[in-house]
Every structure is written in C-alpha cells, then in structure tokens.
Amino acid sequence: MTIDQSSDARIAAFNLAHQHRPGRVVTPTTAAGVADAVREAAVRGDRVHVVATGHGLLAPVEGGTVVSTAALADVHVDPEARTARVGGGARWGQVLEAAAPYGLAPVCGSSPTVGVVGLLLGGGLGPAGRTLGWASDHLRRLELVTATGEQLSVTADSHPEVFRAARGGKHLPGVVTEVEIGLVPMAEVYGGGLFFAAEDAGRVLHGFVDWSRDLPETVTPSFAILRLPDLPQVPEPLRGRCVVHVRVVVADGDAEAGAATVAPLRALATPLVDLVGPMPYAAIGAVHADPEEPMPVMDGGVLLRDLEHGFVDALLSVMGPEQHVPFAVAEVRLLGGALARPTAGPDAVVGRDAAAQLFVVSAPAPDLFTTAVPAVAQALVGAVGAWSTGVVQPNFVGALSGPNPWVRAWPADVRDALDAVRAELDPAGLFAGPR
User: Fold this and answer.
1) Rounded to 5 degrees, what are φ and ψ at 191?
2) Which region holds residue 17: left if phi is over 0, alpha if psi is between -120 and 50, else beta?
3) Structure pTM?
4) Backbone angles phi, psi at 92, to 5 degrees
5) SS3 of 66, please?
6) Which of 68, 84, 111 marks a domain boundary?
7) Which residues span the domain enclosing 86?
8) Which mean pLDDT values do the consecutive 10-residue runs of the chain (435 residues) have?
C-alpha cells in the first residue's frame, strides 16, 4: 500500500477546473488493504473520498483520506461464461482489449479511458446502448468494502437492496474493489462518425430528426455540435472549425445493411470527413472520439422527453455555428430500444423513459467559468425547457446541472430506497457524498 501524506498529495482528476487538496492519498493493492485504509481513516476521523480515474470528481477534495483504487486494475475474462472480473480501478479500454480475442464485448460507455466502476454505478450509456442496454444491466456481482472495513460480496441474491443501489444509484458508500460483468458476443459493428460543415448544420440536424424516427434498436445514433481547436492533433479539414458530428453504430455486424442504414445521413450534405464503416467493437471509442487528455471544463446535461424539429431550432438558437459561445460540445444521444426496457430485477437506472440525452461541455476557458459559460448554459436551459424532463442522468451531472442535481436524478421512492441503503452501509457518514 502506498501512502502520500505530503502537502501536495495528488490524485487522478480528468477535469482540471478543480484544485484538490486531500490530507492523504492511500493506494491499496488488495481488497484487504482497502479495508485497512478505511478502518484507519475512521480512527483518524477522516472523511473518505474514493477515486479511480478521477472522471467523477465534480468538486474539489479538501482534506480527508483519498482511497485510490488505481492499483486494483486487473481484468480476467471467462470466455465460456461470457463474463469478466474487473478490478475497481480498471478502465473500459482494458476490458475491451481483454474480451476482443474471444469475440466478446463489454457494454461500455463512449470513452475507453473512463473507469469501469464509476460508469456502472451511474447506469452507463454507450455507443451501442439501444441494442445492448445500460452497462449496469450487465452487472453480476461486486465486491464492496463498507465503512466498518467489512468486505461484502454483493449479488442480487445476497444483498438485493445494495445490488439495486449499485445499478444506477451512483453514490454507493464504500469502496468497490472488483465487479463481475456479463459480456456480449460482438466482434464487429458498422459505425463511426460523419463530420459536416457549419453551414449544413440546420439541414443535417433536421434531417437527423426525420431519419431517427422508428429506427430499429440495432441502430444507436447521436450528434454533436463541436467547436474544435486549431491544433495539430485535429485533422486538417476540421481544424479550428465548428462542425456537426453525426455518430452511429449499427450493431448487427452486416456492412451492407449498415451502409444502407447510414445512406440517408450521407445524402443530407457532403461530409467533410466520413469515418463510418466496419470496425472492431474493441475500437468503439472511435465512434464518439471523446477527448482523452485532462483539461478544465464545466459541463452538465438533462434528459429529453422528445426529439423533434422545434428542439433542433431551439438548440441551434443558442449553440448553433452562428452563435459565439464558449462551448466545445453540445451533444444529443438518442435513447429508447434496449435502454427503455426494464432489466431483470430492480435497479436505480435513470433514463429508461426518456427519448434522448442532452449534454454540453464548455471550452477549457476558466476565466469564463463564472460569467459567459453559466450564462449561456442558463440560456440553453430556457430554450429547450419545453423538451426537457427536468431529470438529470447521474453520469451526466456536472457543474452546469443546476442546483441540487442529485435531488432531480431519481423519483422520490427510488431516492428514499437509496438513502436507506446509504444509511445502513454508512450510518456515521464516513464516505464523502456526491462530489
């Protein structure tokens, strides 16, 4: 076990907008080491903050003990059972790589660099979600260290209420040291992204709305208005431009059928770049091409009750290419399909009854975080209010999600059940709450 008690103890953090100052950082290499670290923090009177990849840190960590699960990152695939045992600090890219040789795939999010546990606890919305459902639908078991240092093996049978909270409840008080997830037989998909010029934004997005109606659940699409930096790592046709990025995954593995599905999108306008085609599922992160380097941002999202032309007009009125706004991303992901179906047994997933997910990410401009960024976000909230459910999906909560976002994340009965589990597992409040 590694312990950093220096005054500048550092923790992994993807969002550099926050300066973290933990009292100490503990990096156990075993579940028993995690239990020891938790018990020691309790004796010291420290609050415990659990950190894996740092993508879920929404506010500064001040003092207390950070238990980092970074050293618990082993992945073991059982190809016959179609399962994977994944350490609490592993990232989805590791699972994709481990499962691919067997023609198997995890139900993961859009970025392979995100931690497995954090995404699972919030539900987990991925590029093939309409086909495969939420990531947490495939959770089989988790190993949890509680506030007393007890090590629980949690399944639907052994601890049903805790298991329910782990599937979409997001803030489970304790340290998840390992999960077991189901894998799906999927080696290849037809997918990728089409990048269109700013002047085609209206035509493309309205065309997307028409095209997306009544899609089979083998197709999972999304779109984003991107303001890309003028940097060498951005492909030259897109560098320094505002573009529309239409993403799609056709998960039936048939390239001819996939091409036919995407043909109406290609016909909307001439793409600046066309990256859609047959691809290994292990490369699924290329569909959204999310940033992988840490940077300071503000972000937030809300679920939508419908995706229609009026919404597109409202979105473009605030975030369109003609607007000068300090935002890098405004994206919409189509839900429905397998994402709408109840899973076996109770869970706490938010979004099964929504039509789409809206998410925005600011430009990395900290000098605007108290002025223009929240002002534009508020204008967007007003513009799309008629289509918003007012509910936030836990994995898309951020600084721009408004006051008390966690109160709006679950219906009252689900929230009460989650609170009961948290009170049972951590009655003294050892573990820090939502950050």
Assistant:
1) -170, 180
2) alpha
3) 0.95
4) -65, -30
5) strand
6) 68
7) 75-185
8) 56 84 94 97 95 85 94 98 98 98 98 96 97 98 97 97 97 96 97 98 98 96 97 92 98 89 97 97 97 92 97 98 97 98 92 98 96 97 97 95 90 94 95 74
